[in-house]
Amino acid sequence: MLPTPSTTHIDPSLIYPPAEDSYLLLDTLSSASEIQFLHSRFHPTSPHPHPHPTSLPPPPPPDPPSPTHNPAKPSTSPLVVELGTGSGIILAFLTAHAPTLFGRPDILTLGLDINPEACIATVKTVERACADVRSQITRNEDGDGDEDAGVEGGEGGEEGYFIGSVNGDLCGSLKEGEVDMLVFNPPYVPTPSVPSIPNPADSAPGSKPKHQAASTAVAPAGEEEPEDLLAFSYAGGVHGMEVTNRLLAQLPLVLRRGKGVAYVVLCRQNRPEEVVERVRGWGGDGDGGWRCEVVGRSGRFGGWEKLVVVRIWRGERF
């Protein structure tokens, strides 16, 4: 079992703390089946110095190379983006354990959140998680570590490369076709409405607004009330799907062609079976079509918040 990043430093009055949905994502992304999928999806085209974890089944071989494929050239380092990082626990987990989860340490990770306090917390969570993993690896090498800690690393305790945490709304800060893996634990609770996205230009009377799409507007730090900041993390509007629907509309644009994959959390009120069918109807045939499957479940035996994690991806030859 891979260690869970610490979030003891966050202020729960300002930032959504880890909860059942967070841990469901962690369990799903670190399951043997999803690790095997990610190893296969992002397998480098040339041998990588970091070995695959011996406790997991070996990933399937990569797809046959195309006629123009250069076998001597390694694949581009995958970009992993989490939207709505909150405490940063998911992004920290993906960064600190990149060699185990992806079969390679050259993973670039980036976080985005509309809450500026969450952006600050995410940086601290990622830094602490990576430091903890390096410390555990050092203790293991010295013979003083816990053999059951589940930490593995390559030479020097390699982990992913954390780019940073951006204060922004959904995919507005991302370039088209650049994201290899996107993770989103959205505000999925059904509410009468969703919070409006504040625009810094609105707070300067008489000033000329900057040329900025609504989807990229950001909230200036310190100007939102705590309850407003937290509302961004849970209020999902009608059927809890208003924010998620916006993300789904952007996915075909931001995911990398032929390789991109997304993991999204849904609750029962979001009608996940309808989401699965909608994504499958996006287009493409055979190996190049859009695919969507439930790969993680929680709350099967009680409680209103029955959660699932859906994986959205498209065929290798899309």
In short:
With 318 residues, the chain is of the alpha/beta class. 28% of the residues lie in helices and 14% in strands.
Structure notes:
A seven-stranded mixed sheet has the order 3-2-1-4-5-7-6, with helices on both faces. By secondary structure, the chain is of the alpha/beta class. α3 (89-96) packs parallel to α5. β6 (290-298) and β7 form a beta hairpin. It has helices at residues 20-29, 32-41, 89-96, 98-102, 116-141, 226-234, 242-254, 272-280; strands at 79-83, 108-113, 161-167, 181-184, 261-267, 290-298, 307-314. The protein starts with 19 loop residues before the first helix and ends with a strand. The chain has eight helices and seven strands. Residues 46-60, 65-73, 151-157 and 200-223 have low confidence and may be disordered.
